[in-house]
Design brief:
Elements lengths: L1 H4 L3 H14 L12 E2 L6 E8 L4 E2 L5 E13 L4 E5 L1 E7 H4 L12 H4 L8 E8 L4 E10 L4 H21 L2 H12 L7 H9 L3 H4 L3 H18 L2 H19 L3 H18 L7 H15 L7 H24 L5 H25 L1 E2 L3 H28 L4 H23 L4 E2 L1
Helix pairs in contact: 2-12, 5-6, 6-16, 7-16, 9-10, 9-11, 10-11, 11-12, 11-13, 12-13, 13-14, 14-15, 15-16
Length: 417
């Protein structure tokens, strides 16, 4: 089966690129390095735009984000225009100043602005080997244009969503991570249990999340009864979710694959070849976002889906000899994904959890129910605010079951190097 794909240009090109990218033959240069008239080591102030929603790093001390620089200056007040993108690190107390439950965090004197994608900022700080570490923010504004207003509206929507999820406690924190990629309210112990169980991919925004929103769109589209309207609704649902959650490498992969699949179906293809779609997606994403190539999320996302597509049939036939069809299909997908991602996990995380093969088959359906019921309860709470408390009780009951199961799987041994 695999051999025949080497006759397909997209698949062959993807394999060759993988070999070139990951065997050290070439070094992928940064597409937009910082360029200015000042030495990077002397720069103490930067101005520009945040390009993605800040994400809390593992240490918990900072939020990181990609920053497009437009101007820099040094201690001698020498200024220079600048171009390029850099990684910035904003102290947690500054970033969370307006977050629910963390108001008045003592960061007022350091600049308690609202840090989100699309905003323009002036930072004071210093460069290190990893990027620019912010000490203070002295200015923030959103441009008065249609794009600026859309960015600001998105930022407000994400903040309001955090407030709603905060009211649901730890269950809301998990739902927030699953729907928006914001993990600052996820219980650290639960997040660690997911990692130890080989379930980190469930917390990462990916194809599972897009397929759920696509299914919702299909449901409403079928009610209308027109295929063209269904197609438009599905595309709209995918775009809205990606716009709200932000384009992480794994979500961008899922978005490209989903759009290619939808367009193939709309063109009359009954069964689109997902391996060729994945190959084309890999090549396209490598072109439009080459900085993603060395990102672990990028590698894990493509590796897992490639493993599923290339080995699922083999493992399904193997498991179906002793197990029901549902478990055979689920375990077959999990096994293929795990096998193809083991080298990546060993390289970046120094280990992997074999129990993840079984854990994924059990936890994924629970997470799917959790997300669907959470979306329904969010809509109901927006219409009937009085339902917020009973909804919180129900969603926390589901969360307790998920937490209990994940904790059990996390006790199984991991393989480390």
């Amino acid at each position: 089966m695999v051999i025949k794909y080497f006759q397909k240009p997209f698949f062959l090109a993807a394999v060759i690129c993988c070999f070139i990218f990951y065997c050290g033959i070439v070094t992928i240069p940064q597409r937009k390095p910082l360029t200015s008239l000042l030495k990077t080591s002397e720069i103490t102030e930067i101005s520009g735009q945040i390009l993605n929603s800040p994400v809390k790093i593992n240490s918990g001390k900072y939020y990181s984000a990609l920053f497009q620089v437009s101007e820099v200056s040094n201690k001698q007040l020498q200024k220079s225009s600048a171009t390029g993108n850099i990684k910035i690190y904003i102290p947690t107390e500054m970033t969370e100043a307006f977050f629910p439950g963390r108001l008045y965090s003592g960061s007022i004197s350091k600049g308690s602005y609202f840090y989100e994608s699309g905003g323009f900022y002036h930072f004071q700080g210093k460069f290190s080997q990893n990027g620019f570490y912010v000490l203070k923010c002295t200015e923030n504004y959103w441009i008065n244009s249609i794009y600026g207003k859309i960015d600001f509206f998105r930022a407000l929507c994400r903040l309001q969503f955090k407030r709603l999820m905060y009211a649901w406690g730890t269950a809301g924190g998990l739902l927030l991570a699953l729907l928006s990629g914001a993990k600052e309210y996820t219980d650290p112990a639960v997040a660690e249990s997911f990692r130890n169980s080989g379930l980190s991919h469930i917390l990462a925004l990916s194809g599972m999340h897009l397929s759920m929103f696509s299914s919702i769109a299909i449901f409403f589209g079928n009610k209308i009864g027109r295929k063209r309207i269904t197609f438009i609704i599905r595309i709209f649902a995918l775009v809205i979710f990606v716009w709200f959650a932000g384009l992480s490498p794994s979500l961008l992969r899922a978005f490209i694959c989903s759009c290619l699949t939808l367009f193939a179906l709309s063109a009359g293809t009954k069964e689109p070849d997902m391996i060729l779609i994945l190959s084309f997606s890999f090549l396209l994403q490598s072109i439009i976002s080459p900085d993603d190539i060395q990102n672990p999320g990028f590698m894990l996302s493509y590796g897992a889906l490639a493993g599923i597509l290339l080995t699922n049939k083999f493992f399904y036939n193997l498991y179906s000899k002793t197990l029901p069809a549902y478990f055979s299909a689920s375990l077959g997908s999990s096994t293929g994904a795990q096998i193809f991602t083991i080298p990546i996990a060993l390289k970046f995380f120094k280990g992997f959890a074999p129990i993840g093969i079984v854990a994924t088959s059990i936890i994924s359906p629970l997470i799917t129910i959790f997300i669907y019921s959470g979306l329904l309860l969010i809509v109901l709470c927006l219409i009937f605010p009085v339902l917020q408390t009973p909804s919180g009780i129900f969603i926390n009951l589901q969360y307790t079951v998920i937490k209990f199961c994940v904790n059990i799987f996390s006790k199984f041994p991991k393989i480390t190097i």
